[in-house]
Write a structure and sequence with these properties.
Length: 447
Amino acid sequence: MAYVLGIDIGGTHVTAAASVLGDGVWKRPTPVRLRGDSDEAPAVLHVDPEGALQVGDPAERGPVLRPGVVAREFAGRIGADAPVLLRGERWSPQTLTAIVARRVTDLVRGRESEPPVRVVLAHPATFTAHHVAALRAALADVGLAAEPLPEPVLAAEGHAARGGADARALAVLAVGGTSYEASVVTRTNPITYAVRASRTGAQQLGGADLDEVLAQHAYDALRLQIAPLAGDPDRHLRILHDLRAEARYTREQLSHADDAEIILPLHPGETRLTVTRATLETLLRPLLDHTAATLARLVAVAGVPPHHLGGVLLTGGTAHTPLLTELVAAHLPGVTPFPPGGTTLVAEGAAAVAAQLAAGLHDAPPDTGRRGGGVWEPEPGQEPSVLPAPVSEPRIQLPDAPPRPPVRISTPDLPGRRRTRRAQGMNAGAAALVLAVGALAPGIPIG
């Protein structure tokens, strides 16, 4: 069955979505299971003991003590001159990003027994032509024909593909694992959005920073129990690794529970710390308020009056923090923040655009990029508060995809955990999917 693929590689995780062709119509995009019962996999590359390059996070099975064997957070560094070192070999960030995209494509191709018709890959809206050109070249080097497009545009397309209300302009706040980006997009025709303005804050913040704040709070509270173990550096490092992992898990639980426990193994025994949502919000409020304020300032300079905005899209794992929605609403009164779109909204939008391209709705990939610097500037003589003229044609609505049998991947499950008092914790998911890179196109060196 013909299908198209959308891929979103963030600072910490990668997600994908596919749209299939049925009865001559491209169906509504659905997320792709990348590992076990989870729609996301770690955007991490590492060198295994045999010297092969793998996709997956070995730290999920314990801390990695050897330096230079793991690459993280490379997608946001595309176009940078500084290479990433993996066991003495230099890799460009765009090459590592392309490898992850290729392996995701190969994974889906193996399930479907045929390659995708089109592939669309998300990238930050603040990327310049230099960044996009570097990414295109890296994708070509690994033999992947993919179209890079800005993340906020794809978020808007994903919102539309899910049946969201039609809007001429949307604000988008993406808060990922390692960074955040505020954008305003406007519709240029019935099926295309374009970036009108985009900005990242001077202070880069992401979910990892929020986890670090909670981990520090827990470390201070449990200092008496942890201090006697500081004499063993390896053991102390393992405890710190476990504490950061617990902080992330607990923060996710507090998105839908009033309190949760940080459970820290001390080998032997364990210690527990109860964290309430009120405590977490007190810790995170200064950081999250910074991102919401950045979005409000961007809207002010983008030339889109708030009453012209159809709403605010919140994307990324951190978008599920209830406090973020509250702060965005406070900084943009009268503008409705939509419920968080989950981690796959951008990937679904990428698949929707890939379907548009496959259907011939664009003569060429849509020009959705930004101009010049980090904020859109109007053409000379153009009034910045005037949006493009309304378009009367209705947006094409994609039908739901037909039911498909679940894909099972043989990976060990993490043990179940009792974490929350008023709400059950989310499944921890399966262990990290390890994708070998040995099948990549010739010419890609494997460590």
